[in-house]
Design a protein that fits this description.
The complex is a heterodimer of chains A (236) and B (177).
Chain A (H helix, E strand, L loop, with lengths): L5 E5 L2 E4 H23 L7 H19 L3 H21 L9 E3 L5 E3 L8 H23 L1 H6 L9 H41 L5 H31 L3
Antiparallel strand pairs in A: 1-2, 3-4
Chain B lengths: L1 H10 L3 H136 L2 H24 L1
Helix pairs in contact in B: 2-3
The chains are: A mainly alpha (236), B mainly alpha (177).
Chain lengths: 236, 177
Amino acid sequence: MLAPSILFNIGSFPVTNTLITTLVIDLIIVAFVVAFNVSMSLYPKGIQNILEVVYEYFYNSTKDVSNKVKVIYPWVITFFLFIVIANLLGQFPGFESIRFITSSGENVPLFRTATSDLNVTIAFAVISIFMCHFYSIKYTGIKSYISRFITFKMFPIFMFVGFLEFIGEFTKVISLSCRLFGNLFAGESVMSTVSGMCAFGLPLPFMCLELMVAVIQAIVFAMLTMAFMSIMIEKH
Amino acid sequence: MEIITNIINLFGLETKLFIAQIINFAILLFILKKFLYKPIAKIFEERQAKIKQGLEDAQNAHKTLLDANNQKADILKTARINADKILNNTKVSSEKMKQQSLEDAKKQATEIIDNAKKQAQDEFDKISKQVGLMSVDLSKKIVSKVLSEIFTEEDKSIILSKAVDKIENGSYENTTN
């Protein structure tokens, strides 16, 4: 099933299983932050090591591609942390197996991988691309920003290139969201099918594959955001 | 239009859910920025400063060690030179003292020998004088005994006095010689 299952409604607001998972992810991230702040020390140990490694990796990667590192890196790391936790959480027991009976009597899973919901991935892609454009206007100026899409140099060649750039911004949203959604939804479907065929042993190689996909897709999304932002922040 | 509606329904796209996810992400970004990224950046800065300070301290310590080693070498060199100087001075002065004491000893020995010779000469003179006096007395006694049998009292007295005079003169001459 492509669409997330609606568990219940709060007024007119539908609460889906992916939204519940999103809240669980939020709690996990907040728990990490609290644990980090409690045990924060100049000599790292435990969770601080992991967070410092992630921070340093993305900070240095951003530094390599852009001079506006302090603007870009919070977005990149936040995307990575959320997506990687969301993807990995899908491999935990309880997903798909813990069921919920809706008011209409439908038996649906209580949790579902957040990134296998197109609402989530499109929201992330829109945030990513919107912030790219916002920072482009902020740091390069409106004139330079508009000249990316509308220019009369070498008319009509660059006019056409500008048009393609404009279309490209929409395709960025589609590619970012659909890549993540497709990978995770496909993985979830494969796991569900394989587990249905044989619950013991057979899902193990697929689980390993899914763990890899989970991390790779999170890195891809974060890196693409970093690349798009660094390109848009540079003067045209 | 119908196709788009079908796609939206198929994927369960919902504006409210979409906005909820955007708000959720914004809140998460705010929390992470304030409570995770800033403290990590601060820790990195502190650690970097501490490492920098540590490296500077190590460099300073190394420099101080080199200076101390150089100073030590200089002090040792000076001490060696001074020690050599003192040793040489000591050798010279001890040689001098040895020479001086040898000379003093020789001088003292000569003085002692001279004194001894003088004392021996004095003793010899004294004894010679005593022997002279004793021989005069003995001669007087011998002559008076021999003459008492040959001469009269008057002759004896004359001869005796002459003999005594002679002896006295002779002994005097011997003594003065």
